[in-house]
Amino acid sequence: MTTYARAHTNIALIKYWGKANKQLMLPATSSISLTLNDFYTDTAVTFDPELNQDQLTLNHQMQSPTAVSRFLDHVRHLAQIDTRARVTSLNHVPTAAGLASSASAFAALALAASRAAGLNLTPTALSRLARRGSGSATRSIFGGAVIWHRGSDDQSSFAEPLTIQPTLPLRMLVVTVSDQKKAVSSRTGMANTVATSPYYQAWVQSNEALISPMITALAENDLTTIGALTELSSMRMHAAIMAEEPPFTYFLPETLRAWQLVQEQRALGIPAFATMDAGPNVKILTTAPYVDVLMTALQPVFGDRILSTRLGPDAQVITKEQFNDTESAITSQG
């Protein structure tokens, strides 16, 4: 039987960067994110006794199944099976361009594969499973505002929705500076920052200290504080990255231009706050009434490379028809 699942990308307001345990994918700090509605991955999984190895197709292209097989081994262990699987994944988000495609990909795979294997995991267990594929996938199991507890072992490192969700009409503008594959992957860049940046331990301590204030700000709908903490976490992370050996940055010239435009709009009284993950693309946090104003300010520089999105839902099992609709949409986009 084939199971189809959809999971959405997330953008961390308080960042995850660096592992305390590589084998278990335990993070060095806790993190808080927002799940986004318009970027997602649909994945179909079939365990087939006739297969002698796992198969992976991503956006109609056959791929090496190595990472997926390693992840599916966790599912097989939980389900006490050894059957190989056929995985078909449709990424409705540029892959490896700093838009958290791995988060939605492994969250969708965790849900589809576990259900196809006959498991019915709790949301917490599903979050822990997704973590074994990609750290940020832990958070994409849930919609809205999500916290990932760093924990100290496999059982204690998981994500969950924040108890009090913000009621602000939050919106995220995603400015695509580049949709090309990153020169340095998140995993490689993260490991090098941990190993060589003299600022890394300071990053860990300062970032963990932002968790509690962010929870409070979200619960109180304090957009000014939410935005200030978001920018602080992002810039501190990138400062640690820039200080690694050899020095490196994900920033491109247009990245800095986007940040400058955000600061200019904020000086005019527009609530807008920028953040970046491991890539050059800029995400701008604001609320619904200010989307058009920001679009007008950004379009002379970025044209149609801006998308406004709202908060997205939990990962969910979908129908074959929904999966086929995504496939048709991706095909029509070329």
Automatic annotation (TrEMBL):
EC number from the UniProt entry: 4.1.1.33
Start and end residues of each Diphosphomevalonate decarboxylase-like N-terminal domain: 7-159
Gene Ontology biological process terms, A to Z: isopentenyl diphosphate biosynthetic process, mevalonate pathway
CC annotations in GO: cytosol
Domain Mvd1 C-terminal positions: 172-304
Transmembrane segments: none
Keywords for this protein: ATP-binding, Lipid biosynthesis, Lipid metabolism, Lyase, Nucleotide-binding
Similarity annotation: Belongs to the diphosphomevalonate decarboxylase family.
EC class of the enzyme, as a word: lyase
Source taxonomy: Bacteria, Bacillati, Bacillota, Bacilli, Lactobacillales
Record protein name field: diphosphomevalonate decarboxylase
